[in-house]
Design a protein that fits this description.
The chain has about 300 residues and is of the alpha+beta class. The protein contains eight helices and twelve strands. The N terminus is likely disordered.
Length: about 300
């Protein structure tokens, strides 16, 4: 275990998922929306195994003071980017010292992340700290906005057809659409398409919008409920079927089902460069929470 001394806390690295979960759970549960990615990835690792995101072992980090009070956390599932919790100081501004300490710990351990994913100010602070230590150039390659559902307002009129939860017979379609979704984003998927489909099917984590004849037209996935929050992801309509209201209808359906099942918060991320999706989700009742960013280090 590696650490860096500081008056407010030290960063500790571990490859032990159980240790990370036991020490960081209360901190992550204290702000479920802001920690949604950390919560859902941790849940996936615990339910599907340490290598569900790749062949390399994950790495976890916790920043805690001498009394064990946690003020920061991250997880890293190579080859993907580390995901870092918001690092807020006492005045609610980003804690630059905490970001710098993490950069020091990672660099001293000989680790070289290809970037970082975090709330925008935290991502910028860590990227600047990493640049100071390594002279790498940080570049924002994906800007997102986190939304939380307020009052659900389903589209009226809804398109013809209806929603149903995907089953094993839909596996090939889910895997295909998962690949097409990430190809359209220009991003590498976090999981193998078949593994992703199996993981979601295990708990009913994909809803389809079907035409009256049963033809699937769009899908919306949802994470398992952790700390009261459910995140909608991904939402996908094949290119030749877009503009007909299917994405809004299936998102409303899966959001309503999450609320009915007891979710305290229904969340989703949008691409800030996509005004169509941002407008759609606001019409459905989603309201902005915080902006997030993914940086690449070159």
């Amino acid at each position: 275990m590696a650490s860096s001394s500081a008056h407010a806390g030290v960063w500790q690295l571990t490859s032990d998922l159980d240790e990370f979960h036991s020490r960081a759970a209360a901190f992550l549960h204290s702000a479920p929306a802001l920690h949604t990615a950390l919560l859902s990835v941790t849940d996936m690792l615990r339910t599907r195994g340490l290598h569900v995101y790749g062949k390399e072992d994950p790495l976890f980090g916790i920043r805690a003071d001498g009394d064990g009070v946690v003020s920061g956390a991250f997880l890293w599932t190579p080859p993907h980017l580390p995901t870092l919790s918001p690092l807020a100081g006492t005045d609610a501004a980003v804690d630059v010292a905490a970001a710098d300490q993490l950069a020091e710990v990672l660099a001293d351990a000989g680790l070289a992340p290809a970037g970082v994913a975090a709330e925008s100010a935290t991502a910028a602070a860590f990227s600047a700290a990493w640049q100071r230590r390594t002279h790498a150039t940080p570049v924002v390659h994906y800007a997102q906005r986190l939304y939380r559902l307020g009052t659900l307002t389903p589209p009226q009129p809804a398109p013809a057809g209806g929603a149903r939860v995907a089953t094993g017979g839909d596996r090939a379609l889910l895997a295909l659409w998962h690949g097409e979704f990430h190809e359209a984003l220009g991003q590498k998927a976090a999981m193998d398409a078949g593994e992703w489909a199996d993981a979601r099917l295990a708990y009913g984590g994909v809803t389809l919008w079907e035409a009256p004849d049963g033809t699937p037209l769009a899908m919306a996935g949802n994470t398992r409920r952790v700390a009261g929050q459910v995140r909608i992801a991904p939402v996908y309509t094949p290119a030749h079927l877009r503009g007909r209201g299917y994405a809004g209808a299936v998102t409303a359906a899966v959001s309503g089902a999450a609320v009915a099942a007891g979710a305290d918060e229904v969340l989703l991320f949008t691409d800030l460069d996509n005004p169509t999706s941002n407008a759609l989700y606001q019409r459905l009742g989603f309201r902005p929470v915080r902006d997030f960013a993914q940086y690449s280090f070159t």
